Amino acid sequence: MPLGEGASPPHALYFEHRKQREEALNIRYRIWIKGHLDPSWQEWFENLQILPDGPGTTVLGGSFVDQAALYRVLLKIRSLGLVLLSLETDEFPSVQEEL
Questions:
Q1: What are phi and psi of 92, to 5 degrees?
Q2: Backbone angles phi, psi at 58, to 5 degrees
Q3: How would residue 94 be classed by pLDDT, with cut points 50, 70 and 90?
Q4: Measured distance CA(82)–CA(93) in Å, rounded
Q5: Running DSSP on this structure, what letter comes out for residue 73?
Q6: Where does 21-97 show beta strands of DSSP type E?
Q7: pLDDT confidence of 4, banded at 50, 70, 90?
Q8: Cα–Cα distance measured from residue 38 to residue 55, given in angstroms and rounded to the nearest whole number
Q9: Which residues on neighbouring strands pair with residue 91, listed in sequence order?
Q10: For residue range 29-69, what is the model confidence (pLDDT) as tens digits?
Q11: The pLDDT of residue 62
């Protein structure tokens, strides 16, 4: 089999990656952690909103540019020794789907 046979052409991979990024932007994430986190940490957490959510709980909310950004935030939570309580997602329609 010749080298590269059966592989997707580079432009197809680019468009697939672009589609995945657009889909990621249509998902809103809410991550609950134990304890109170000051809003000054927002930049550290991919610019998610940081809001108190009851006694002893903080919620991080927003969208990520891609799944790798979600994993970066989860790794930061772990590396800081924070306790992850819950993670929820809501998908909302893209602009193209609304037309």
A1: -120, 155
A2: -125, 145
A3: low
A4: 32
A5: H
A6: 27-34, 49-52, 57-62, 84-91
A7: low
A8: 14
A9: 27
A10: 999 999 999 989 888 898 899 999 989 999 999 998 888 89
A11: 94
For residue 18, how many other CB atoms are within 10 A of its CB? 10
In the chain, the amino acid numbered 42 is Q
Q: Which long-range contacts (CB under 8 A, 24 or more apart) does 23-27 make?
A: 23/94, 24/63, 24/64, 24/65, 24/66, 24/67, 24/69, 25/63, 25/64, 25/65, 26/63, 26/91, 26/92, 26/93, 26/94, 27/63, 27/64, 27/89, 27/90, 27/91, 27/92
Distance of alpha carbon 44 from alpha carbon 17, whole angstroms:
25
Q: Please, what is the average pLDDT of the chain?
A: 80
The torsion region of residue 54 among left (phi > 0), alpha (psi -120 to 50) and beta comes to: left
Say how many C-beta atoms besides its own lie within 10 A of residue 62's C-beta. Answer: 16
Q: Would you state the pLDDT for residue 34?
A: 97
